[in-house]
Amino acid sequence: MKPELFRLSRAPYPYFRTVPARFGDMDEEGHLNNVALAGFYEEARVSFLRHYLKSKDGQEFRFVIANMNITYLAEAHYPGDYDVGVGVSRIGNSSFNLGAGLFLGETCLGVMDTVQVVIANDKPSSIPQHLRDALARHTLVK
Amino acid sequence: MKPELFRLSRAPYPYFRTVPARFGDMDEEGHLNNVALAGFYEEARVSFLRHYLKSKDGQEFRFVIANMNITYLAEAHYPGDYDVGVGVSRIGNSSFNLGAGLFLGETCLGVMDTVQVVIANDKPSSIPQHLRDALARHTLVK
Amino acid sequence: MKPELFRLSRAPYPYFRTVPARFGDMDEEGHLNNVALAGFYEEARVSFLRHYLKSKDGQEFRFVIANMNITYLAEAHYPGDYDVGVGVSRIGNSSFNLGAGLFLGETCLGVMDTVQVVIANDKPSSIPQHLRDALARHTLVK
Amino acid sequence: MKPELFRLSRAPYPYFRTVPARFGDMDEEGHLNNVALAGFYEEARVSFLRHYLKSKDGQEFRFVIANMNITYLAEAHYPGDYDVGVGVSRIGNSSFNLGAGLFLGETCLGVMDTVQVVIANDKPSSIPQHLRDALARHTLVK
Question: Are A98 and A117 in contact (CB under 8 A)?
Fold first, then answer.
């Protein structure tokens, strides 16, 4: 259940997206809300996918999330600029996993993992070779 | 990784909270957004905890989420009134788990599990007996 | 600047949409956040438009908001089921106004007005007669 | 109803806050949602107030929004880094106005105005001299 240790440093993540906290991300206790933080991971994940995987011949695919797992390690506050690292942690036949980490400076405040299913014509589809190659170039580095 | 079968029907959940979808919950594809759905589970979870566990002598405690896991089984749409079932799935020493299911009528669209840590004086605390009793009365029923 | 008095009672609004507050709507002070409340009005406004104006031959139009004005009269709290009343307050050539009121029971906590522009082929368009008729049937009643 | 012309350039705003759009800010049409954009203005407004007005002897005050008015001039898209300019447009006895503009580069996509009421001991209060001075130093420049 505990995240693997290597996930708690910035080193393994090949891509980072900075997400400045917004006032509206806070909950009544003055922390960044758990669901709002899920939005930070989403923003980094989408940004990663747009950055690396979208290409003219990739438009026929979309990615659906089958599972999202977030471990909250420490509370996050407003204001603050959070860096979310993202990388590929598994490549299967019709799905792949992304791993992410939320950082304030060098401190890891949480990690997230998603299972992404590749959809074409409204059903799960084998990952085409060019996407597979792109994913393989941006894996988490142990 | 797949949710246990019994979690996909309404029967095991002792508590339900109806969350009507809002226009703002949709993403660019016209589905209810994954993060927005995390907010549906949050609303049901908070409502459950307020309903059953808050009492005058419980004010010294708060609950922090250590882990949140969501499995998305089918896409959800707007408009719609979603029923989120919640129950206790584990009672530990200083933490407990909640399990939830998202339903449209009898159809389960997803399940969520959280690990909740009981905090007193800013650190994890043994669950006091009266909270332990309240949790035990509202477990998921296999 | 002050809202007209008749807007502070439920009577003039021909349509109501109930929006239950969610935990995530609260800000750090424990009130429903101003932006979250803008979402309550949005939900009621969209619901009104879907309910009355959408028809097979209306699909070629969409409505864009040119202006949104919200007056906050009192703080709103969680939990609570808020009723948002909506009605048409002006019908122009290519735009119309909607007026809304946010109620907890009989108490008005705020009012909102929007200017909606009718768009066809990506530019403002005269309101077609059947939409004009539908709008005229659901005006605010002084 | 139309915004004053000088508000459509960056020049008059003494303070800017950059708000990167998030995936979750989009609505089903792929534009940044109206309510999400209200959150952009909120973030800039709060940032402005924290930056200029908070001081040790200001803690006894809080600011409540009595009115928020947003004019939407053009659609905004994801991804994008939006600059929100903010300045003081009126200083009254117990309230003041803030004016804001939303920019993508030099293009103004909208303007917002709020009426902020100064609250002390749960009721409107004269603006104390040190806050009045701070506000006067950061006005919109025609």
Answer: no
Instruction: Considering only the C-alpha atoms of chain A, give the largest distance between any 2 of them, rounded to a whole number of Å.
Output: 47
* CA-based nearest residue to B36, from B116, B110, B117: B110
The whole model's pTM is what? Answer: 0.96
Alpha-carbon gap, residue C12 to D19, rounded angstroms: 39
DSSP character for D36? H
Look up the ipTM and state it: 0.95
pLDDT value of position B19: 98
Any B CB within 8 A of C22 CB: yes
Give the chain B residue nearest C18 (alpha carbons): B20
Q: How far is CA B91 from the centre of its chain?
A: 15
Per-residue pLDDT of chain A in tens (142 residues, 90 and over written 9): 689 999 999 999 999 999 999 999 998 888 999 999 999 999 999 999 998 876 555 567 889 999 999 999 999 999 999 999 999 999 999 999 999 999 999 999 999 999 999 998 889 999 999 899 999 999 999 8
Tokens coding C133: 């008729």
In sequence order, the 6+-apart residues with CB closer than 8 A to the CB of B135 are: B52, B53, B88, B91, B96, B127
Q: Inter-chain contact D33–B24, Cβ cutoff 8 Å? A: yes
Number of H helices, E strands in chain B: 2, 6
Residues in chain D: 142
Please list the helix, strand and coil fractions of chain C in percent, rounded to the nearest 5, in that order: 25, 40, 30
Pairing, β D15-20 against β D81-91: antiparallel
Q: Residue D29 has which token pair?
A: 């049409």
The per-residue pLDDT for range D59-81, each reduced to its tens digit, is 678 899 999 999 999 999 999 99
Token pair recorded at residue D30: 């792929």
Q: Which of B68, B98, B123 to mutate to test the interface with A (most CBs of A within 10 A)?
A: B68
Residue whose structure tokens are 């997230």: A112
Task: Give the span between the Cα atoms of A14 and A135, in whole angstroms.
Answer: 11
D contacts of C65 (beta carbons < 8 Å): 34, 72
